[in-house]
Amino acid sequence: QKMGKNKALSTLKIATGGDHSQHNRWLLKYLSFGSIILRYKREFRMKCSRVISFGDGKDEANAMAEYSKEYNIPCIHFEFVRHPTIKQLDDQWKYIQKKFDKLLVK
After folding, report:
1. Who contacts 51 (Cβ-Cβ below 8 Å, separation ≥6)?
2. How many CA atoms, within 13 angstroms, populate the side-chain half-sphere of residue 24?
3. 60-95, pLDDT tens digit by residue?
4. Based on the number of CB atoms within 10 Å of its own CB, is 95 exposed (0-12), middle (13-18) or buried (19 or more)?
5. Helix, strand, or coil here: 29?
6. Do residues 58 and 26 make contact, with C-beta atoms less than 8 angstroms apart?
7. Which conformational region is residue 17 in: left (phi greater than 0), alpha (psi within -120 to 50 degrees), or beta?
8. How far is Cα 63 from Cα 86, in angstroms, rounded to an integer?
9. Which of 63, 71, 78, 99 is the most buried (most CB within 10 A)?
């Protein structure tokens, strides 16, 4: 369920104390990830036991680290190369493909 732009901006302003500087931008990711996790917890009627995230920025990694710590949920983060070449994209996905099945059964 989407909350709309004005509600999202209001929520971000509250979460960041009005400080939209770079050091607080991870909070937007944190709120987004939390919302997605909650949606699937409700949909599948299951608790979240592990999060696997992919991203090329520090905000994603910081957000998932905080979420993991706060809710005591293991998080595995794959940090992608920023502005990758096609070859680097291909290499990243091959690496993840090899590791993904092992991560799911842990």
Report:
1. 33, 37, 64, 67, 68, 73, 74, 75, 76
2. 10
3. 888 888 989 999 999 888 888 888 889 988 898 888
4. exposed
5. helix
6. yes
7. left
8. 27
9. 63
